[in-house]
Every structure is written in C-alpha cells, then in structure tokens.
Amino acid sequence: MEKILIIGCKKTMNDVCIACSRCMVGFNRREGEFSRYKEKDAELLGILNCGDCPGASIVPRLTQLNLWNKPMEEIPTIVHIAPCIVDHCEYRDVLLEKIKAKAGVDVVLGTHPYIPDQVFV
Ligand code: SF4
Question: Of all protein residues, whose CA lies closest to atom 5 belonging to ligand 1?
C-alpha cells in the first residue's frame, strides 16, 4: 500500500488553489502523476504546506508530521510535489534538495494534470 504525502506551496494553498481540490480530484481519479497508482493500492495521507518562503521550515515540518503520524503507523511511502511548487516557487530548488535529502522515500514531481492552457478559452 502506498501512502502519499503531497507537499504544496503555503501561499497558493491558502489564497489561490482553494481546498486543494485539484490535487484531491487528480488522486481520486488517478490522473496526472497519480496515474501510476491505477493498478495499485494507494491512499492520500496528507497535504502538507511548505511552511512559507523561503522554505526554511520544510524539514522540521516533515519531522513534525512523522511524530504526529507515527503512533497511528501512518508514515508516507512516497512524496508528491504539487505544481504550485514545481512550476511556480522561486525557492523550488532549495525545497526539492531538502525534501529529497531528508524524506527517505521517493519524491515525484507533480500531482494533478488540470492546469488550464489559457484563462479565457
Ligand atoms: S517557499 Fe515556495 S512553495 Fe513555499 S510559500 Fe514560498 S513560494 Fe510558496
């Protein structure tokens, strides 16, 4: 069973991508980067925000999530980085470096595929 943790941009999660619904729907439909779970057991464990610019607190946040979830035996087996970080974060490289160094599980770039090409068409 894969246990998926999504990491997204705090500012985007709070103010733009309301309710993180595109990531949730993408996972439920197994679309975008979640299509790899079509034939697999997989659960969404959580959606963690980065902790705000400049990404200094991502490792303590991962550590805290581990402390929180360990008693439930719900530890991520794979991390997905949301498009709000992959495509838009100016601190993306630093964040990815820290997450890849410290997560201890595979890190996949991307989640849902529902990025509109143009706004008015
Ligand atoms: S560090 Fe990047 S992902 Fe986090 S709030 Fe700032 S812009 Fe968003």
Answer: 52
Q: How confident is the model at residue 8 (pLDDT cuts 50, 70, 90)?
A: very high
Answer yes or no: is the C-beta of 52 below 6 A from any ligand 1 atom.
yes
Looking at residue 71, the DSSP 8-state letter turns out to be: G
Other beta carbons within 10 angstroms of residue 20's beta carbon come to 19
Atom of ligand 1 nearest to the CA of 11: 5
Element containing residue 49 per DSSP (H, E): strand 42-49
Neighbours of 67 (CB within 10 A): 9
CATH of the domain at 99: 3.40.50
How many structural domains comprise the chain? 1
CA distance 61 to 12: 17
